[in-house]
Design brief:
- By secondary structure, the protein is an all-alpha fold.
- It has two domains: 55 residues; 86 residues, AhpD-like.
- It has seven helices and no strands.
- The longest helix is centred in the N-terminal third of the chain and has 43 residues.
- The relative contact order is 0.05.
Length: 159
């Protein structure tokens, strides 16, 4: 009987901590979620539904990623970043993203003409992507052509 009790105690010593890990993680996750939610509310004045749609355990990481990519200290200035994202959003297409990026781009000083041009660049990229992919142009051949064309154009510009 003593051996059986010792056996059970040894098993419990390993099982109890394993059972407590999810509780600890859940508490940490809950704290991180509340911190992220509070920061979002302080930043936007509300808890936007786009963040509410993220699972509780994933919100802190999603918010950190959002903040890092939206930082005004990044290499790409905010207006150009928003125009780039608009170009992609228009091609996905994502109505939510288009609205968001147009609105934010304008807040950073983008003009209607810049917005039109960003969307046109996205459309042109998609068009040529379809032409190249659809005709199965060899990538390595295409790279060689582009490199040669750039050398030629550079030489012509120097004349």
């Amino acid at each position: 009987m003593r051996n059986f009790i010792k056996y059970i105690i040894r098993r419990l010593i390993f099982i109890i901590p394993v059972l407590l890990i999810p509780i600890t993680i859940s508490a940490q996750s809950s704290d991180a979620y509340e911190t992220a939610k509070k920061e979002i509310e302080q930043t936007f004045g509300t808890f936007l539904s786009m963040f509410e749609a993220i699972p509780v355990h994933a919100l802190p990481g999603a918010w950190d990623n959002f903040k890092q990519l939206q930082s005004p200290e990044n290499a790409i200035p905010p207006k150009y970043r928003e125009l780039m994202q608009l170009s992609v959003a228009a091609q996905i297409p994502c109505e939510y993203c288009v609205y968001y990026h147009i609105t934010v781009a304008k807040a950073f000083g983008a003009t209607d003409e810049e917005i039109k041009e960003a969307v046109a660049h996205g459309a042109q990229t998609r068009q040529w992507s379809m032409v190249l992919q659809g005709n199965q142009i060899e990538l390595e051949d295409f790279k060689a052509e582009v490199d040669a064309a750039l050398i030629y154009m550079s030489e012509q510009a120097g004349k």
